[in-house]
Design a protein that fits this description.
By secondary structure, this protein is an alpha/beta fold. It has nine helices and five strands. The termini are close together. A five-stranded parallel beta sheet has the order 2-3-1-4-5. The structure holds adenosine-5'-diphosphate. Adenosine-5'-diphosphate (ADP) binds next to α2 and α3.
Length: 182
């Protein structure tokens, strides 16, 4: 069973890596950012509720995010494992995930290590609605304050990967670090 969480600052390449890793490991890639963006694109009630928050780089309230993740994890394709990207993003969400999984513990938490200056450059080239410099700086601050504490929270499960390098090279680093664990 492969139950893996990816953690790292915005722009670290989690989404790109998650797609490749999901194919290699045979488990679905579950990205809360992608799920929210799909809601926004489809003009759902949830999408309307979260759009302004996401555009400003803040975190969607835990009760909204947690419920969306609970529903997604209950779907058939996630019963054999999953790769979570962008969730949990704070310790409250991590407590929630622990409660949802119960005895089914995570196999590993992969940290994507990368300098902030590198990620700012990458994101400015990406052109997403929430990718202008002010919003990017804010998202990095939110990461430092809210998400980085997860590295201690998950200390026992943590695998840290250098996220700088060619896409395929980084994928191999993650796969070899996961070998025997997921
Ligand atoms: P990135 O990896 O570039 O930070 P994501 O696609 O993961 O971007 O997330 C985009 C935005 O969606 C976040 O800035 C935040 O507003 C919202 N979001 C995503 N995941 C969560 C979460 N777990 N909790 C709260 N908000 C979230």
């Amino acid at each position: 069973m492969t139950r893996v969480v990816l953690v790292g600052p915005p722009g670290a390449g989690k989404g790109t890596q998650a797609k490749a890793l999901s194919a290699e490991l045979g488990v679905p890639h579950i990205s809360t950012g992608d799920l929210f963006r799909a809601h926004i694109a489809n003009n759902t009630e949830l999408g309307l509720q979260v759009k302004a928050i996401i555009d400003s780089g803040g975190l969607v309230p835990d009760e909204v995010t947690n419920e969306m993740v609970r529903v997604r994890l209950a779907e058939a394709d996630a019963q054999g494992g999953f790769l979570l990207d962008g969730f949990p993003r704070n310790t409250g969400q991590a407590d929630f995930l622990r409660a949802v999984l119960g005895a089914d513990e995570l196999n590993a938490v992969v940290e994507f290590k990368i300098d902030e200056d590198v990620v700012v450059g990458r994101m400015l080239g990406r052109g997403r609605a929430d990718d202008n410099e002010g919003v990017i700086r804010h998202r990095l601050e939110v990461y430092r304050k809210e998400t980085a504490p997860l590295l201690d929270y998950y200390a026992a499960l943590l695998i840290s990967i250098d996220a700088v390098g060619e896409v395929g090279e980084v994928t191999q680093r993650v796969l070899s670090a996961l070998r025997g664990r997921a």
